[in-house]
């Protein structure tokens, strides 16, 4: 059996933007797939896929959507219904019929609300030149608020002062329970009143979230397990391992587990392969360390789909860094194979693992293959530029 015939977990081995969306799309187009399961992050994901001239930046929908593969948002995902509805409209405009019918959501997933988003942006703006590089999508604020059970005003939780009396964190499942949802949103509104007040009232949000609940399938129990037993799953990670909440370089991290560990928990011990995605050079969006940063690399490889973000900051680039790659692999407890993207880049260099000056990298595919099998090779966000190999599995043999 091929390495990629069974369940596949896709993770980024950099600071994000490695090409995970194009890899997931290629995997779904190459093999029958029951579902794409999102296992971390939320609306801040931006996975670019191009198929037959159609382009979409996948955020909450799985990047297998153009291949007709349904998406399941697991309990580890932070769900933002406004952004999800907007993304569905864009997909429909792009030729995907009734995108929301392809979506299921675990009722235990946390709900990202306008309160979280406005608070996140207010905090990031207040940091001035010391910005963390937040996307401004409310991700960290959603997670932080969920950690405040029993906290009191003035207490410091995860390096942030509790500014009011917190309530229970709202979940997707609350969208079908208006009285529960209203109670939780009222508490959110009171808690964040000193920091930010969004334009939507609680009454408006309750009504809008009820509409959301009626438009998607909300699941309970082990939906991922049921899907896994029905057929092959592709697990799509968001952000990169070097931004992981435990393994990244704080404070320039995401409030999310970007390693394969959430996917492994969802699989419950079922066999799977982990595919680590990497470019042939290193990139980063916004503030934070990028040891091999190079203005020449940035100038040589302009981005069509990545640009400076209002909150996230500038797009940056540098040489491939062997030490950071090894660190990311270790944080994942190893991966089974690489997916290497942007193989069309030329004039590459790599910083050796000992930190010595960058050396020429004339054959990046051979360099990666000397470390691990290369199961997917690609040349950008277009499916036409991807090749899925028939690597043999050591797991399923």
At a glance:
With 397 residues, the protein is of the alpha/beta class. 28% of the residues lie in helices and 20% in strands.
Give an account of the 3D structure.
The strands form six sheets. The protein has a ten-stranded mixed sheet with strand order 11-7-5-2-12-1-13-17-20-21, sandwiched between helices. It has a three-stranded mixed sheet with strand order 16-18-19. Strands 3-4 form a two-stranded antiparallel sheet. Residues about 395 have low confidence and may be disordered. About 30% of the residues lie in helices and about 20% in strands. Helix 3 crosses helix 4. The termini are close together. The chain has two domains: about 5-80 and about 220-390, 3-Layer(aba) Sandwich (Adenylosuccinate Synthetase, Chain A, domain 1), CATH 3.40.440; about 110-220, Adenylosuccinate Synthetase, subunit A, domain 2 (Orthogonal Bundle). It contains eleven helices and 21 strands. It has helices at about 20-30, 80-95, 115-125, 140-145, 180-190, 200-215, 225-230, 260-265, 295-300, 320-330, 365-370; strands at about 10, 35-40, 45-50, 55-60, 70-75, 80, 105, 110, 155, 160, 215-220, 235-240, 275-280, 280-285, 315-320, 320, 335-340, 350, 360, 375, 385-390. A hairpin with a 2-residue loop joins strand 9 (about 155) and strand 10 (about 160). By secondary structure, it is of the alpha/beta class.
């Amino acid at each position: 059996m091929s390495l990629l015939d069974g369940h596949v977990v896709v993770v980024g081995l950099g600071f994000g933007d490695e090409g995970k969306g194009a890899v997931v799309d290629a995997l779904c187009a190459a093999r029958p797939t029951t579902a794409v399961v999102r296992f971390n992050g939320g609306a801040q994901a931006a996975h670019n896929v191009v198929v037959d001239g159609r382009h979409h930046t996948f955020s909450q929908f799985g990047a297998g959507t153009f291949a007709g593969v349904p998406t399941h948002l697991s309990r580890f995902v932070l769900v933002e219904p406004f952004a999800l509805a907007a993304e569905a409209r864009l997909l429909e405009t792009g030729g995907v019929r009734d995108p929301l019918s392809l979506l299921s959501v675990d009722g235990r997933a946390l709900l990202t609300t306008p309160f979280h988003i406005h608070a996140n942006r207010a905090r990031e703006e207040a940091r001035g030149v010391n910005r963390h590089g937040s996307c401004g999508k409310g991700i960290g604020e959603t997670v932080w608020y969920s950690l405040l059970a029993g906290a009191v005003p003035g207490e410091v939780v995860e390096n942030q002062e509790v500014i009011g009396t917190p309530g229970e964190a709202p979940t997707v499942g609350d969208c079908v329970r208006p009285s529960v949802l209203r109670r939780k949103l009222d508490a959110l509104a009171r808690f964040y009143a000193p920091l930010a007040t969004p334009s939507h009232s609680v009454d408006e949000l309750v009504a809008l979230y009820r509409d959301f609940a009626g438009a998607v399938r909300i699941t309970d129990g082990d939906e991922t397990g049921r899907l896994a037993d029905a057929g092959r799953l592709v697990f799509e990670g968001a952000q990169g391992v070097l931004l992981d909440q435990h393994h990244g370089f704080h404070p320039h991290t995401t409030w999310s587990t970007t390693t394969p560990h959430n996917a492994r928990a969802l699989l419950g011990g079922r066999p799977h392969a982990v595919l680590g995605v990497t470019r042939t050079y290193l990139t980063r969006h916004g503030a934070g360390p990028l040891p091999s940063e190079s203005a020449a690399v940035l100038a040589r490889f302009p981005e069509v789909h990545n640009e400076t973000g209002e909150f996230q900051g500038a797009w940056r680039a540098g040489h491939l860094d062997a030490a950071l790659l090894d660190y990311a692999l270790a944080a994942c407890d190893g991966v089974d194979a690489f997916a290497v993207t942007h193989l069309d880049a030329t004039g590459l260099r790599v910083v050796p693992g000992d930190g010595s000056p960058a050396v020429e990298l004339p054959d990046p595919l051979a360099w990666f293959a000397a470390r691990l099998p290369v199961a997917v090779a690609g040349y950008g966000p277009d499916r036409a530029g991807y090749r899925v190999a028939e690597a043999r599995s050591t797991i399923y043999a």
